[in-house]
Input
Amino acid sequence: MADSITAIASSLGFSSIESFIGLLIIVGVIIAVIAVIAVIRPVLDRFPYAYPVARVRARMGRLLTEKQLTEIIESDNIDEVVNYLRGLPDYAKYVDQYPLEKALDSQLADTYNVLTTIVPDSIKPIFKVLLQKWDVRNLKSIITAKEANLSKEETINLLVPFGELQDSMDKLIDAKSVTEVINGLEGTAYARVLDDAMSAYQNTGMILPLEASLDKYFLENLLTAAANPADESTAALHSYIGTQVDATNLSIILRAKVEGLKYEDIQPYMVSDGYQIREWKLKDLMEAEDVDSVVSSLEGTEYAQILTDALPEYTSTGSVAPLESALDEQIRKTAKALSIRIPFGIGPIVGFLSKKEKEIRNLKVITRAKREIGFPNSKIKEMLI
Output
């Protein structure tokens, strides 16, 4: 046996059997190290998520149950809704401080803030960008308020007390026009974003170009933050953000078609780096004649069927709301799929945020319905998502 090994070593150019055996040991160690890394790498990737996922699962347990939601629906009036929420730790301090809808939005914004502090460092930059949604949301509300000539108090009630622009809010609220709002944003990136869309707003008389420019700025920042996925969780988060980009692009295109806008009116506000709908497909959609043509052009994507199913309601009402609701539902389905596919990484975090967004939206539906005397509870249940 030894003679055979010696012969093999000699044939391979080794001067002694010891040097040959030494090489075999080194090769064996390298293979073992590679095998160990292959085994523990997934564990190392998941380890930073252990604490955040535990925190999120605890919060998941505090989401409203179907029984609780039914009890809120069966409240006799808006005051009873407030009293019910006052008995829930997650909502108590907000409903005591703000009007109900503002309280709900504030609770959601605070949830985003908390998650930003606990998520792993690898995705923290993405969550910090996610917080920009409250600045974007507030700016849209202020612009809408100026167009509708709302009072200062009415405008304040629309705003969520979160975001980097809080110190500028008083000045923006007191602005007399959209132009003054943009001037009040001098020194921020939002001033440039809105100024670039100002001519389209003035030419069309619609605030859609201003809203779309803010959405584009926010989504492009998100895509940049998630541009270099390092593991399964960050790759999944990138695809989830891409789905949101697709949904936003489609929403803008659908609304633009209802308003009769053309390709050149829409193109500046598109985000080309989506998930399924790439730049060439966006061009086809923007050039479509009407809403029906947009939906037909989506054949082969996961958005085709959901929008086709929502078309009859759009046709009967003339509102794109059913189509936008269908797109929102697709985002929720994507989040649910991620939560199942990656249970020890980003999945539970994305799944929880999606469920929290859904809970807040349903509570706002109930809130608005309870402001109308005699609004049937059965109808409220039909409106929930």
Summary: Residues 35-45 have pLDDT under 50 and may be disordered. DSSP finds 22 helices and no strands in the chain. Residues 249 and 270 are 6 Å apart (CA to CA). The radius of gyration is 27 Å.
